[in-house]
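Forum > Structural Biology > Help requests

Title: Can anyone predict the 3D structure of Glycoside hydrolase family 19 catalytic domain-containing protein?

Hi all, first post here. I have the sequence for Glycoside hydrolase family 19 catalytic domain-containing protein but no way to get a structure on my laptop. I'd be grateful if someone could post the C-alpha cells.
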Amino acid sequence: MPGTKEFYDTIRASVFKGHILQSQIDGIEAILKAAADAGVTDQRKVAYMLGTVYHECAGTMQPITEFGKGKGHPYGEKFKMGGGPGHRIPYTTPDQLYYGRGFVQLTWYENYDAMGKHLHLDLLNHPELALQPDIAANIMIEGMTKGMFTGVGLGKYFDTTHADWINARRIINGNDHDVLIAGYAKHFYKGLTGIDA
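Reply #1:
Sure, ran it for you. C-alpha cells for Glycoside hydrolase family 19 catalytic domain-containing protein below:
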C-alpha cells in the first residue's frame, strides 16, 4: 500500500521539517510495500517501524552501514556471541564482519545466520544483502513482528486494548531513545491515519 499525498504532506511538515527527498520517499515506500506484503495491517505497528527507521538511519529512510562498522564492539571483529561477554568465540569463515547493516542495524554472526535462514538468504556469506531496501525491510518486519531481535515483538505493545509507544523500543534496544522514537512514530501514525496517537 503506497503512501498517499495526505500521508506525505503530514510527515513532510512534522518529521521532515518541511522538506522530504525522493530517496526518503523511496525508502518509506519500500517499507510500506513490505509491511503490506507481510500482512501487517495495524497502522500503529507500521508507524512504529517507520519511526524506528527514521531514528536508526539518521533520517535518511535508507538502509545504512553502522557508523564505525562495529569498531570497539566484539561483532566488529571476528567473534561470535558465544557464551556472552568474556566468552566470545572467534571464527575465520566466512571472511566477513557482522556489524550493523540495514534499516535496524542487524549485528552479530548468529543474528545474520538466523535471519538469513529465516528469509532463505545467504546473509553469512553476503551480509551486504542487508543493505538492499526490500531485504532490509523484510529483516526489520520479521524481526520486529516476530520478536527475532530481542525475544519480544510488536504484538506485546500494540494489541486490541492498548498501545505502548514508549516501551515498544524494547523490541530493538531496551529503552534507548524510547521517548524520541515514540514521538517520531506518532507523527507517522498521524500521517497514515489522520488520527493523533
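The CA atoms of residues 151 and 171 lie 7 Å apart. The domain at 74-129 is CATH 3.30.20.10 (Endochitinase; domain 2).
Shout if anything looks off.
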